[in-house]
Amino acid sequence: MPAPLSVTLVDVQAARERIGPYVHRTPVLTSRLIDERVGAQVFFKCEIFQRVGAFKARGAFSRLTLLTAGERSRGVVAFSSGNHAQAVALAARELGVRATIVMPLDAPALKVAATRGYDAEVVFYDRIGGESREAIAQRIQDERGAVLVPPFDDDAVIAGQGTLALELLEDVSDLDVIVTPCGGGGLLSGAAVAARGLRPEIRLWGVEPEAGDDMKRSLEKGEPVSIPLPDTIADALQTTRPADRTLAIVSALTAGILTVSDLELRRAMAFLASRMKLVVEPGGAAAFAALLHDKVPDTRGRRIGIVLSGGNVDPERFGALVSGVE
């Protein structure tokens, strides 16, 4: 008999109660043009309108609201290329906690500026040169007694991410499929726990960049697989290895992992911008890219939930990515 999963529907529901005062209930948008294009009814869960511009605010507040008084006094440390960094920085500021964020030297300038704007201390590392963000975070933990807030390898973080699926199914209760981007698997795991807990027959798919298919490889092998730093425009999905806990949940509760190319991501971004007037970052558009390019199985005539997970992209870069690809 398989071991019980580390996160349950009850955990997601509890996280929702904790984070309610701090996060937005994001809208669900539709487009008749897109429905006609893909032959399905599509419902976009727009986490681009979440605080910090991404779903990560949910997981960060979920974890930080569990800190004890002693832990709050010692502060938190996190590592992230951007969206989780901003989310932890915001949650820490609102809860009166010191935050130190370990970010790569090549992180998007927009995300670094936003993280600092939430009063967090940013410590850079050279991931291209092989420096370990985990080792740097561990040193800060040792020196300050700070609490580590991982981007996905944490049950409270996963539960927080799952709250978006609770909202989505309240707004559209009869969905057949939910598709989310997938980096380390925290979003997909949380959404799967929530959605399958409420609607056992629903199917969930995660979508990775072709160059960053660590979750797909891990599912195929049955254990976490490490890959080199992915060469992809989807900076939010540049994970190199899923966690044991996210792999276990994804394996147990989802239909699997799909992959998309950078060109397909750009086309999805351009389509969303021109047809729905939405600015979505490359990783945030992964789920729609898979649907737009007919990669999600058995969607004709179905009701499909698509998570647009983030919209943090520099305007100039966005313009360059969407130009001439429709």
The rounded Rg comes to 18 Å
Number of domains: 2
Cross-sheet strand order for the largest sheet: 1-2-10-7-8-9
What is the terminal separation in angstroms?
A: 49 Å
Number of DSSP helical runs: 14
The computed structural class is: alpha/beta
The outline comes out as globular
What helical percentage do the residues reach? 40-55%
State the CATH topology of the largest domain: Rossmann fold
- Beta-sheet strand percentage? 5-15%
Outline the low-pLDDT stretches: none
- What is the makeup of the main sheet? 6 strands, mixed
How would you spell out the order of helices and strands? Answer: HEHEHHEHEHEHEHEHEHHEHHEH
Number of extended strands: 10
CATH architecture of the largest domain: 3-Layer(aba) Sandwich
CATH class wording of the largest domain: Alpha Beta
What would your notes on this structure say?
By secondary structure, the protein is of the alpha/beta class. The protein folds into two domains: 9-54 and 154-322, Rossmann fold (3-Layer(aba) Sandwich); 57-148, Rossmann fold. The protein is 44% helix and 15% strand. It is built from 14 helices and ten strands. The chain has helices at 9-19, 32-38, 56-64, 69-74, 83-95, 109-117, 133-144, 155-171, 186-198, 214-221, 244-253, 262-276, 286-292, 315-322, and strands spanning 28-29, 41-46, 76-79, 99-104, 121-125, 147-148, 177-181, 203-209, 256-260, 303-308. Strands 1-2-10-7-8-9 form a six-stranded mixed beta sheet, sandwiched between helices. Helix 1 packs across helix 8 (155-171), helix 5 (83-95) runs parallel beside helix 6 (109-117) and helix 9 runs parallel beside helix 11. The longest helix is centred in the middle third of the chain and has 17 residues, at 155-171. The N and C termini lie far apart (49 Å). The relative contact order is 0.16. The mean pLDDT is 95.
